[in-house]
Amino acid sequence: MKVWLLLGLLLVHEALEDVTGQRPPKNKRPKEPGENKIKPTNKKVKPKIPKIKDRDSADSTPKTQSIMIQMMDKGRFQKPAATLSLMAGQTLELRCKGNKIVWSYPAYLDTFKDTRLSVKQHERYGQLTLVNSTAADTGEFSCWGQLCNGYICRRDEAKTGSTYILFTEKGELFVPSPSHFDVVYLNPDKQAVVPCRVTVLSAKVTLHREFPAKEIPANGTDIVYDMKRGFVYLQPHSDHQGVVYCKAEAGGKSQISGKYQLLYAEVPSGPPSTTILASANRVKGGDDISVLCTVLGEPDAEVEFRWIYPGLKEERPVTIQDAWRLIHRGLGHTTRISQSVLTVEDLETIDAGYYICTAQNLRGQTTVATTVEFS
């Protein structure tokens, strides 16, 4: 009787566990409240190490972005290539992003104050427009932004743009020159350039001597050809002097350039080499004197003269005449002699004293003096 009673109680207990769903599965322990339900795994995972950019190397070379675009037809635009070839007569419009844009373009357009060129600054970009283009407009067009602190501005090297444009014109292989015969000075301490530039990118250009007639090779050592400049003499010397010209060939056509007289300059570049000489250093009242200031320099180096003399404050009338000429010294060596002559007539006592001449060129200035006294 007791056995049947115990068996009945056991069956009732198992039925209650099935109803409540709390019967623990076999071989598994019940989970504690809040225990992580993700099954643990023994799979090994290789940790990923994030790549760290070298900030120093990135900052040491700032990126330069081109700010120039070329406007095309129907409102389209594109970044211009380093070298462009356009047909003469086309309108060129370039824009550079920025509110303070400076432009550089072929000096030819500035020399003649050409009205075909227009440069404007808008709120967000600078604009350069060239209409009725010709072969003579061939050259470098560039722009850059400015970094300003008050009224002091400097060029922003990180925001620039440039393109070299060849304007191709029928019958013109060379960029036209205003003169058919130009002088190129050969200075021993700087490069010399024979400016034979072409308007056709594929043109073959050679350099020739007129007498004795022969081709001068651009060997890359003494002479090189630069499309943007012409034939460059890297180390000029007196053997290079003479008359030369260039020859271009393209598309089965050929053309001869103007002629260039190469003159060797004896005097090295630098501030003016100046001397001063008075016609007399001891004078009498009523005499006339002349004071001569002379500079020997580079053939193409212009010189400006300034005078200080005793009667300057009293506005004593004097005559000043400036002149220059080229002189040949020795084996084809060419020098420019520049002179300024100050003349005083009918001397008075206020004319006695120091006569001071200052000569100035692009490389500096030199001051010399002499005295004039009454005997």
Spatial gap, N to C terminus: 169 Å
- Low-confidence regions: 24-28, 34-41, 55-61
As a percent range, the share of strand residues is over 45%
C-alpha Rg, in Å? 42 Å
Helix content: under 10%
Largest sheet: 9 strands, mixed
Question: Which structural class fits the helix and strand makeup?
Answer: mainly beta
What global shape is seen? extended
Mean pLDDT across residues: 83
Order of helices and strands: HHEEEEEEHEEEEEEEEEEEEEEEEEEEE
Count all strands and give the number. 26
Number of separate helices: 3
Subunit structure: Forms a complex composed of PDGFRL, TNK2 and GRB2.
GO cellular component, one term: extracellular region
GO molecular function: platelet-derived growth factor receptor activity
Protein name: Platelet-derived growth factor receptor-like protein
